[in-house]
Design a protein that fits this description.
single chain; about 325 residues; alpha+beta; Alpha-D-Glucose-1,6-Bisphosphate, Chain A, domain 4; 2 domains; 8 helices; 15 strands; Polyketide_cyclase/dehydratase; SRPBCC family protein
């Protein structure tokens, strides 16, 4: 991978920078461009991406909202993208950047180098918010770190055709709650209280780096008595949705994203826990034994995660159906 320089973006600051990252990929250009174009898949492919969703668009011009790790923090922004399927380019410009970024733009370019190979170039141009040199240095480091991680993940995913589909599983569990939707949401969002409320959670360390944003580290207990530590970024969309991505996943997974979705259904609330996981093939034998298959690993992870989800949902149901705030609050 190499790093060179494109043109800078305009912004309200006076310190600007540019960066170019490139990587050779042993996969068809169309396969690679398909990953770049579909932002909904980014959280389970790109390590820095916590959550991504299209706000509006028609397949050529779109607005997307992204949440991503940047160093030791989490940033969110809205970008407009221009997709050219024929040229296999995706140009972007942040409409609502977050400090210390005053402006950020760039382009993904996928160029065929053969029938089953291509080169990917990721350009960035940015301006820091204000004149402090450390702000520009922070942006340069974050762009370099995230671009490197994204391109490596793009390469490894594209070079294993069909593997992601084989290793990927999305599933959900649901309960019906005869109680207020707001109480169900509060139970799931107020994770600091989980060690007192949930039998499988023994420790929680909860940070709130921004509005409707949490960094959740917790220890959970398995049926065999073992303890597992996970770390997640959670984004709240009150009153009915919480999405998350695990940054520290169990040994047998490479990715775990999910969401809690609450909807009113007549006089009740349908509470859903949805998971998307990607199994780590080379860790299956260590966890489940030498004869275990990918299907065994997916079934094992589904059972473990589904069990904990249902425990949480059932306790949320109990809380919402019987919880009454005290007169003193």
């Amino acid at each position: 991978m190499t790093r060179t320089i494109p043109q800078p973006a305009a912004g309200r600051g006076t310190r600007s920078g540019t960066a170019r990252h490139r990587i050779a990929v042993a996969a068809p250009a169309r396969t690679v461009y398909g990953i770049v174009a579909d932002v909904a898949t980014w959280p389970r492919i790109f390590p820095p991406t916590v959550h991504a969703e299209r706000v509006d668009g028609d397949g050529r011009t779109e607005r997307i909202r992204l949440w991503a790790t940047a160093g030791d923090t989490v940033k969110t922004w809205t970008s407009r993208r221009e997709l050219d399927d024929e040229a296999m380019t995706a140009a972007f410009r942040q409409e609502i950047p977050q400090s210390p970024v005053a402006a950020m733009s760039g382009t993904w370019t996928v160029t065929p180098t053969g029938d089953t190979s291509c080169e990917v170039v990721l350009d960035h141009a940015f301006t820091a918010d204000g004149d402090a040199p450390e702000a520009l240095a922070w942006i340069e480091q974050a762009v370099d770190r995230n671009s490197t991680a994204e391109l490596e993940a793009l390469r490894s995913t594209a070079e294993a055709p069909g593997a992601l589909d084989e290793l990927l599983l999305t599933f959900e569990d649901a309960v019906s709650v005869d109680g207020p939707l707001a109480d169900v949401y509060d139970f799931v969002w107020q994770a600091h209280a989980w060690p007192q409320r949930l039998p499988h959670v023994s420790r929680v360390d909860l940070g709130t780096p921004g509005p409707d944003l949490q960094v959740l580290e917790m220890d959970t207990k398995a049926k065999d008595g073992s303890r597992h530590t996970t770390k997640s970024i959670r984004v709240g969309f009150a009153p009915g949705r919480i999405v998350y991505k695990q940054l520290r996943v169990p040994a047998m997974l490479t990715a775990h994203t999910g969401e809690w979705v609450l909807t009113e259904a007549g006089d009740s609330v349908r509470a859903v826990s949805r998971h998307t996981i990607v199994v780590r093939r080379d860790a299956i034998a260590d966890v489940l034994g030498p004869d275990a298959t990918v299907d065994d690993a997916l079934a094992y992870a589904r059972a473990a995660l589904g069990t904990n989800s249902l425990i949480t949902l059932r306790h949320a149901k109990e809380y919402a159906e019987h919880h009454r705030p005290s007169a003193t609050g």
